[in-house]
Design brief:
Blueprint lengths: L2 E5 L2 H4 L3 H15 L3 E4 L7 H9 L6 E5 L2 H7 L3 E4 L7 H6 L3 E6 L2 H6 L5 E4 L13 H11 L3 E5 L5 H8 L5 E4 L6
Parallel strand pairs: 1-2, 1-8, 2-3, 3-4, 4-5, 5-6, 6-7, 7-8
Helix pairs in contact: 2-3
């Protein structure tokens, strides 16, 4: 079975500690993800949200989105870096963090190979994320890259998870799959 990676979105999971933890707890109970990324690009108090998520006593590995310093400060499992943060990979790893980097092309995947894992997206149609890569492209990149790959983008069903699994990925990442 491939690994599952839940990525939060404040529009779908809530943007207050109470709404976020309630929806996240429900998603975790239903889907048991291996990894959870707290992703909220707009909150002014991201650290407080992260601390609330840390109180959820479940079996998942928490990653902070794009903030290496906060991930170190909170002593979480890891950090999820954007495609403009590849220069932060070495520093995050030196700090003992598990590093996942966002990639959207073969060239970006090559630049991020120092990370512990990458997301490669979008695989399927996903709002405002561009033209889907598709399964053939995903299969091709898994054959060329030695880094663990999470398929990301438009994964909404068990059938799609089975499809990406046949491409040789380490796991799948999604926002919307986990709120169903």
């Amino acid at each position: 079975m491939i690994k599952s990676y839940l990525i939060t979105d404040p529009l779908l999971f809530g943007d207050t500690p109470a709404t976020l933890t309630a929806s996240l707890t429900a998603a975790i109970e239903k889907h048991s993800p291996d990894f959870v990324c707290l992703r909220d690009k707009k909150t002014k108090d991201y650290e407080s949200l992260a601390r609330e998520v840390m109180k959820i006593e479940e079996e998942f590995r928490l990653l902070i989105h794009s903030d290496v310093d906060l991930a170190i400060k909170l002593d979480v499992f890891g950090v999820h870096l954007t495609s403009s943060q590849f220069h932060e990979i070495a520093r995050a790893k030196e700090a003992g963090l598990f590093v996942i980097a966002s990639t959207h092309s073969y060239e970006e995947a090559l630049k991020a190979m120092e990370a512990d894992a990458i997301t490669y997206s979008p695989i399927f149609n996903s709002p405002d994320k561009g033209i889907p890569k598709g399964l053939e492209d995903l299969k091709e990149i898994t054959g060329k890259i030695n880094t663990k790959i999470f398929a990301l983008g438009g994964i909404l069903s068990s059938e799609q998870i089975k499809q990406v699994e046949t491409c040789g990925v380490y796991g799948f990442a999604s926002i919307r799959y986990f709120i169903n």
